[in-house]
Amino acid sequence: MNAVAHSLPASPAQADLPSRMAEVNAATAQTRDIALELCALTRTFELGRGLFRKPHPLKAVDDVSLRLYRGETLGLVGESGCGKSTLAKMLLGLVTPTTGSILVDGRQIDPRGARQLAQRIQPVFQDPYSSLNPRKTVAQIVGLPLWLHKRGTAAEQAAEVKRMLDLVGMPERTHGQYPNQLSGGQRQRVAIARALILRPAILICDEPTSALDVSVQAQIFNLLLDLKAEFGLSYLFISHDLGVVEHLADRVAVMYRGSIVEQNSCEQIFSNPKHPYTRTLLSSVLTPAPGLGLPGPDALHAPPPSGD
Ligand SMILES: Nc1ncnc2c1ncn2[C@@H]1O[C@H](COP(=O)(O)OP(=O)(O)OP(=O)(O)O)[C@@H](O)[C@H]1O
Ligand SMILES: [Mg+2]
């Protein structure tokens, strides 16, 4: 296995990302095998339940069907509260779908079977600090999934942890440290190492760099690209930052009030958006107040967009 971390530039510039992304995606997205398929996935939350009050349902995710092809990066964009994280949590077995099904490698998965899902799908969340146990060292955090899934002997697990931490660029002196002794970027590297230690096929990245400094963001993007090439991973990449999605994704799905209103190649979404909401979302990037100009529900009555 190559030491991916060693190929990281000392100070990676975000400007390098488009060419790197094209290079990595061309090398990994050669087939159209489906890694992950969501069929009519819906999650309804019952809100406002009280002693004398009837709950009213909120469809956080409404009849979403999506495909993630092997080796591709699918960007998922949409305004705050549109259901992106709820969708991600269903894929990770953290939220149970109300209806619909999830297929991994063509086989239907029981969404309650988090253990089964964990071997194929792993998350990288926005805030690595809250997802890392403050009482465990870096090596213990990264090694825990191996221990839980009873992979190898203690010595093999320790060797694998070291290899993975080297791969994500964590120097050996940090392996015995605790999360509060690390920088934000280092914490996200640890979270990525933990996500990859079971060798999943799919990473669900939910705003993985939003909590990080801009210069560190570029390093993490480069690391994700290196790891994608190294392990042939597929990414579902959730982000508010359309600029980042434009650079990293092969295809983009646009979510609005729980539904996917448009999905297409990244190039088509950004150069020729078909749905009024996509157009407004793209133009709102330059709007000083992010909420300004977002369309009302009428926008959803527009003719359905074409595209995959
Ligand atoms: N456990 C829950 N109980 C009730 N409502 C919930 C729950 N989780 C999410 N919701 C609601 O579902 C909707 C979608 O939330 P979600 O976190 O998926 O949005 P999001 O697109 O990830 O937003 P953001 O971009 O701000 O992270 C929101 O209206 C939210 O309040
Ligand atoms: Mg979210």
Report on the architecture of this protein:
This protein is of the alpha/beta class. It has a domain of 132 residues: P-loop containing nucleotide triphosphate hydrolases (Rossmann fold, 3-Layer(aba) Sandwich), CATH 3.40.50. It has 11 helices and 10 strands. A 6-stranded mixed β-sheet has the order 6-7-8-3-9-10, sandwiched between helices. The protein has a 4-stranded antiparallel β-sheet with strand order 2-1-4-5, with helices on one face. The longest helix has 18 residues. The N terminus and C terminus are likely disordered. The chain binds adenosine-5'-triphosphate and magnesium ion (MG). Adenosine-5'-triphosphate binds next to strand 1, strand 2 and helix 2.
Order of helices and strands: HEEEHEEHEHHHHEHEHEEHH
Task: Give the strand content.
Answer: 15-25%
For the sheet with most strands, the description reads:
6 strands, mixed
Bound molecules: adenosine-5'-triphosphate, magnesium ion
Enumerate the strands of the largest sheet in spatial order, edge to edge or round the barrel.
6-7-8-3-9-10
Name of the top-level CATH class of the domain at 4-34 and 71-92 and 110-120 and 200-267: Alpha Beta
Helix content: 25-40%
What attributes characterize this protein structure?
308 residues, alpha/beta, Rossmann fold, six-stranded mixed beta sheet, four-stranded antiparallel beta sheet, 11 helices, 10 strands, globular, disordered N terminus, binds adenosine-5'-triphosphate, binds magnesium ion
